[in-house]
Amino acid sequence: MSESFNFKAILLNDLKETFFLTEEFSERHMVNGTEMDVLLDDYELMERKGSRKENEHFDGIFSADVLMYVKAEDFGVSPKVGALLILDGSKVYRVREVTEEMGVYALALGANKV
User: How far is CA 21 from each of CA 26, 44, 101, 110, rounded to the nearest angstrom?
Assistant: First the structure.
């Protein structure tokens, strides 16, 4: 085989062509007023919650969480922990955790409920 395959390039292509394909995994959402492809991951969120202490909470208020994946190139500058994020024009969350891998942000978002 004369072609040289770059594993990282293949993975990046898979992210764009599969992971964020709206017909397969992601959905279009408004994030801070901009429409973009987003993946909301309930399964990973349950895994993360399962690894926390049962009584973990913030400021004495129950925290409802959303785990959101979004392409960094679509989102722009990485949000800071503590920043507000508005999803679909009406749901307000606070960024609790941000990680970035291979051009994808994983945002753990918290919405405080009494």
Answer: 6, 19, 18, 26
Cα Dmax for the chain:
62
Where are the alpha helices (H) located in the chain, listed in sequence order? 7-14, 42-50, 72-75
Looking at residue 52, the DSSP 8-state letter turns out to be: S
Compute the distance between CA of residue 82 and CA of residue 97 in angstroms, rounded to an integer.
8
DSSP code string of 54-72: TT--BTTBEEEEEEEEEEH
What pTM does this model have? Answer: 0.71
Q: Which two tokens stand for residue 34?
A: 């901009």
Residue ranges of the chain with per-residue pLDDT less than 50 = 1-2, 54-55, 57-62, 64, 114
Distance, CA of 20 to CA of 72 (rounded, Å): 12
Q: Domain ranges for the chain, please list them.
A: 27-113
